[in-house]
Amino acid sequence: MYRKGVKNIFDFLIGLCGFPFFLIALIIFGPIIYFTDKGPIFYNANRIGKDGKLFKMYKFRSMYVNAPDIRLADGSTYNGEDDPRVTKIGKFMRNTSVDELPQLLNLLNGTMSLIGPRPDPPDWLDKYPEDIKIFLTVKPGLTGYSQAYYRNSADGEEKMKNDAYYARHCSFMMDVKIFFKTIAIVLGHDNTYKDTSNEDEAKKQIEELRKH
């Protein structure tokens, strides 16, 4: 009942209530993002949605235009504090999660939920073990179990296991706990960046970028 009906209603109402905040952020940050390097304000990424279907996930752009895609050994995207691909305003938006506000539009169009697994890029679809794919039975979320309790510190394998756990135990009370835990972790700036100290290949690519 909750997962198939009430949760969808809550998502739409939250998206509707949050829409004015998105507009305020757009008015404040939109011009800054654009005039930083005369690029687009939004970053519209293809992501894996419910039942494995692809959808467009909206974010405020936090990187310079045409920034290269750098991955860690587990296939996840590089997210180090020293990333030169990120603009100054982009770093602020990431630290405060302002860059995620456009995903309120995904709540309104029904492609995302407030709480759910964070969506992965399309090339991850073939990497999911069969016992993990259960998390594709729920909509991806603006925040989720793994995001709330680990934010960006969990590696790809751990994230998938956390997402599968959420899909098996999804409930109203679990979503409430995740919601308030997310607020606490964002305000505390906990685990904003991954530990990339052992990622030699990623570090090498970052050093090359700094030289240009």
Automatic annotation (TrEMBL):
Q: Which residues form the Bacterial sugar transferase domain?
A: 7-187
Matching InterPro entries, A to Z? Bact_transf
The top EC class is: transferase
**Name of the protein in its database record:** Bacterial sugar transferase
Alphabetically sorted, this entry's keywords are: Glycosyltransferase, Membrane, Transferase, Transmembrane, Transmembrane helix
UniProt family annotation: Belongs to the bacterial sugar transferase family.
Q: Name one Pfam family in it.
A: Bac_transf
Alphabetically, the GO molecular function entries are: glycosyltransferase activity; phosphotransferase activity, for other substituted phosphate groups
Would the keyword Electron transport be found if you checked this record's keyword annotation? no
The record lists the membrane-crossing segments as 12-35
User: Its Enzyme Commission number?
Assistant: 2.4.1.-
**Organism's domain of life?**
Bacteria
Presence of the UniProt keyword Cell inner membrane in the record: no
